[in-house]
Design a protein that fits this description.
The protein has 8 helices and no strands. By secondary structure, it is mainly α. The radius of gyration is 23 Å and the shape is elongated. One of its GO terms (cellular component) is chromatin. GO terms for molecular function: chromatin binding. InterPro entries: ARM-type_fold (IPR016024), Cohesin_Scc3/SA (IPR039662), SCD (IPR020839). It comes from Eragrostis curvula.
């Protein structure tokens, strides 16, 4: 039988590993967001300049701006691909971890990323993880999911998505997609609260039947 000191040492090391996983996941993706966000603004500015210079027929400036635009787009693409790989390699392996603290760390991080960089993360392929964890058996994980989704609606990330997408000329796509995503998020929360009320009612009924 393990001594109390060995158990405490094990738990301490486990908690340290959990913290490191959560911190690494958050910091890796966040670092790429810090790179991609200003580049997106730079791409918008360069595209506007290019549109103006094309009308002025200044070949040298046009060529220079095209090269800058291509390089900026390449760097954004690299950053977004890296975020996708980190998400697949780390998040997807840990968001259903047996330890609730690891799960909560993953869910909280995803909620921050969706608001910070909606151009990439405000898509159903990422939002569905918040929907799934709404039904987790751990109350802390469910709460983290609720807070993430509520933050998304309160901070109007859907409008941010529209702004960011317009920068790269995808207005029609966003005007169609944003309302659908908003409806999905609201439906996730509605279903959660509905199911919670049903569970509470069932518990009350069982208690009355036993009394």
């Amino acid at each position: 039988m393990l001594s109390k000191s060995l158990v405490e040492e094990y738990e301490s090391k486990r908690d340290s590993v959990i913290f490191q996983i959560g911190a690494m996941l958050y910091e890796l993706v966040t670092s790429f967001i810090y790179v991609a966000k200003p580049l997106s603004g730079q791409r918008e500015t360069t595209q506007r300049q290019l549109n103006v210079e094309k009308k002025l027929s200044d070949v040298l400036i046009v060529d220079s701006l095209k090269k800058i635009l291509a390089l900026t787009h390449e760097n954004i693409t690299y950053s977004e691909q890296s975020m996708r790989k980190i998400f697949t390699g780390l998040f997807m392996h840990h968001y259903r971890d047996i330890d609730p603290e690891t799960q909560m760390s993953c869910v909280k991080s995803l909620g921050i990323w969706v608001v910070s960089y909606p151009t990439l993360f405000l898509q159903y392929i990422y939002l569905k993880y918040l929907g799934w964890t709404l039904n987790d058996k751990n109350a802390g994980v469910r709460r983290a999911s609720i807070l993430a989704l509520q933050s998304l609606l309160e901070r109007d990330a859907l409008s941010m998505l529209k702004t960011n997408k317009v920068k790269i000329g995808a207005t029609e796509e966003v005007n169609t997609m944003a309302p659908r995503l908003e409806a999905i998020v609201e439906r996730m929360l509605e279903n959660f609260f509905y199911n919670t009320e049903k569970d509470m009612q069932a518990t009350r009924n069982n208690a009355m039947a036993m009394s």
